[in-house]
Design goal:
It is a single chain. This protein folds into 2 domains: about 100 residues, no CATH class; about 350 residues, Alkaline Phosphatase, subunit A (3-Layer(aba) Sandwich), CATH 3.40.720.10. The radius of gyration is 24 Å and the shape is globular. Helix content is about 35%, strand content about 15%. The chain starts with a helix and ends in a 15-residue tail after the last strand. The longest helix has 25 residues. It has about 500 residues and is α/β, with parallel strands linked by helices.
C-alpha cells in the first residue's frame, strides 16, 4: 500500500476534515502541483461532484447562473482599513468652519455611544475639515483637496455620504463589512461571490487579495479570515498574492522534477483522494483536488500576471512611479486591472493606515497621498479600456470619524470612531455616475436622508452581479445562511 493511502486510512474523520479544511493553494503547490492533463474521465467526474457540492459557480472557467441580467461581471474592492474621515474627504460641511472649536451639542450627540478612548473626555470641541473642498466635473462633485487625483474622476463616481454600521471598534466593524456579521466564522464577500458565480478564468482563482505595504505605525492588522470561505467549500476562499518573493507561497516546484513526473504525481494524488472520498464521503476532497489543478495552472499564469514590464510608459504616467514598486497601492491597483482583464471575479485590495486618533492633520494627508493617484488611475484605466461599465469598484472603510477632536489641539488632534455616518464611493458596474447619495446634518454626526446600512451595500453589490441576495444561501448546521443574514435592501436609487 502507498504510504499516503495508508496514512489517510489511519486517520479518523475529525482529523481528516481538520486537515482538509487547511489545505489551499499554498499546500497544493507544496506538493509540486503542476501541469494540466488529468484524464478527461477524471475531470468530468470531478466537475460533476463539484457541481453538486460546491454551489452554482463550481468549476474554473464555468460561471454559475445569475438570477437576472447583471450590470457588473466583476468587483474591485479598495478597502481603506482603519476608517478615513468623511469630514476630510467626501462629506463637505461648510458650516463647520463657523462651528470649529464649539462644543458638540447634547441634542446632536443624543446619548450615542462613545468608545473607551473618548468616553472620559469632558469636552467635545468640533474640528473643521483639515483641507478645503472644491466642486469638480460637470456633476459639481464636492471632493477634498486631500485627494487631488480624485478630482479627475468626479463624474465617474457615486459618493455615498450616508453609510452606517452598528460596530464601533475596528475588528467587528471590518469583519461586518467583509462577512455580513460582526463575529468571525462567516464567509467573506468574495467567497460568496465565487460560490455564486464561479470564475471566468481557467488559470486564476475567482477571488484574489492584495495587501498594500503599510507605512503607518498604528495600522490595523489584517487577518486571513477576512477573505476566508468559512463553511463554504474551501476553493472559494481568497488567494493572497504577495508583493515580495514568490507571489504565492510554494508556487514554484522546489524538487526539480520534470513536468512528466509532476503530472504523474498529480494523477496519482487524484486517485488516492478519490479512494479516500469513497471511504469518508467528504465533498471537500474534490475541492482539494480542484485546488491542486488550479495550483499547477497558476505556475504559469501568475508570473505572467505580475510581470508588468510589457506595460507602456503611459500606464506609469497614469498610475505614477510608485506603480513600479511592488506592494504600493498604485502597484496593486495596476495589478487589479490586470487581474480583471484575465477574468478574476473578485479582487480586494487592503490599505490599512487610516486609524488616526492623534496627529490626524498630518497622518491623513500622508495616507491620502498614498492611495489617491492609484485609486483614481484605476477608474480612468478601466474606463479607457471599456471595462468600467461592467466592473464595480468600491472605495471605503469600516466606519467614519467623529466631528469632535480626540485630544490634542487644532494642529495635532485625532478623530475617534464614528459608526453613525460616513462616506464611501462606488463606480462602474451599473451605478450612477457623478452622483451623491444621502445626507448628514451640519455637524456630520447623524444621517438626515437616505441611510445605507452595511447589509444594503452588500445587497446592492450582489445585485449588480445579477444575484438576488436573498436567494444566494448555503445550508450549514441546519440553517440557511446568506451574506446579508436576514436584512438588506438594494439601493435602487444609485443604480443607473
Amino acid at each position: 500500500m502507498h504510504p499516503f493511502e495508508d496514512y489517510c486510512q489511519r486517520q479518523n474523520r475529525r482529523q481528516f476534515l481538520g486537515a482538509a479544511s487547511r489545505v489551499g493553494i499554498g499546500m497544493a503547490a507544496f506538493y509540486s502541483l503542476m501541469r494540466s492533463g488529468t484524464s478527461a474521465v477524471a475531470l468530468d467526474d470531478l466537475k460533476n461532484s463539484l457541481a453538486i457540492s460546491n454551489g452554482p459557480g463550481y468549476g474554473p472557467g464555468k460561471p454559475g447562473p445569475v438570477h437576472f441580467p447583471p450590470t457588473a461581471k466583476r468587483v474591485i474592492y479598495l478597502c481603506q482599513s482603519g476608517a478615513p474621515s468623511q469630514i476630510d474627504t467626501f462629506d463637505y460641511k461648510p458650516t463647520l468652519s463657523k462651528l470649529n472649536g464649539q462644543e458638540l451639542p447634547d441634542s446632536i450627540r443624543n446619548g450615542q455611544r462613545l468608545t473607551g478612548m473618548t468616553s472620559g473626555q469632558t469636552k467635545f470641541p468640533a474640528a473643521q475639515s483639515i483641507a478645503p473642498f472644491r466642486q469638480h466635473g460637470k456633476s459639481g462633485q464636492w471632493i477634498s483637496d486631500l485627494l487631488p487625483h480624485h478630482h479627475k474622476i468626479a463624474d465617474d463616481i457615486c459618493v455615498i455620504n450616508s453609510m452606517y454600521t452598528e460596530a464601533i471598534n475596528h475588528d467587528p466593524a471590518i469583519t461586518f463589512f467583509q462577512t455580513g456579521h460582526q463575529q468571525p466564522g462567516r464567509p467573506s464577500i468574495g467567497a460568496w461571490t465565487s460560490y455564486g458565480l464561479g470564475s471566468e478564468s481557467e488559470n486564476l482563482p475567482a477571488y484574489v487579495v492584495l495587501l498594500d505595504k503599510n507605512s503607518d505605525p498604528q495600522a490595523q492588522p489584517n487577518y486571513s479570515r477576512l477573505w476566508g470561505s468559512a463553511f463554504l467549500p474551501s476553493n472559494h476562499q481568497g488567494v493572497k498574492l504577495r508583493s515580495e518573493g514568490n507571489p504565492v507561497l510554494y508556487l514554484k516546484d522546489p524538487t526539480g522534477e520534470t513536468l512528466a513526473q509532476q503530472r504523474k504525481m498529480l494523477d496519482g494524488l487524484a486517485q488516492l483522494n478519490s479512494l479516500h472520498k469513497q471511504a469518508v464521503g467528504d465533498p471537500e476532497i474534490d475541492t482539494r483536488v480542484a485546488a491542486y489543478e488550479m495550483a499547477y495552472r497558476m505556475q504559469t499564469s501568475v508570473p505572467d500576471l505580475t510581470d508588468i514590464s510589457s506595460e507602456p510608459e503611459s500606464t506609469f504616467k497614469l498610475y505614477g512611479d510608485e506603480a513600479k514598486v511592488p506592494g504600493t497601492h498604485a502597484a496593486n491597483c495596476l495589478l487589479a486591472r490586470r487581474l480583471a482583464e484575465k477574468g478574476v471575479r473578485f479582487i480586494q485590495i487592503y490599505h490599512r493606515g487610516w486609524d488616526h486618533h492623534s496627529g490626524l492633520p498630518s497622518r491623513h494627508r500622508k495616507i491620502a497621498k498614498e492611495v489617491d493617484q492609484g485609486s483614481a488611475a484605476l477608474i480612468m484605466d478601466l474606463k479607457a479600456r471599456g471595462m468600467l461599465e461592467d466592473t464595480l469598484v468600491i472605495w471605503g472603510g469600516e466606519f467614519g470619524r467623529t466631528v469632535y477632536r480626540q485630544g490634542g489641539n487644532e494642529s495635532n488632534f485625532g478623530r475617534d470612531h464614528h459608526p453613525r455616518c460616513f462616506s464611501i464611493w462606488m463606480a462602474g458596474g451599473g451605478v450612477k455616475q457623478g452622483y451623491r447619495y444621502g445626507e448628514t446634518d451640519d455637524w456630520c454626526y447623524n444621517i438626515t436622508r437616505d441611510p445605507m446600512h452595511v447589509h444594503d451595500l452588500n445587497a446592492t453589490l450582489l445585485h449588480t452581479l445579477g444575484i438576488n441576495h436573498e436567494a444566494l444561501t448555503y445550508r450549514f448546521q441546519g440553517r440557511d445562511y446568506r451574506l446579508t443574514d436576514v436584512h438588506g435592501n438594494v439601493a435602487k436609487s444609485i443604480l443607473a
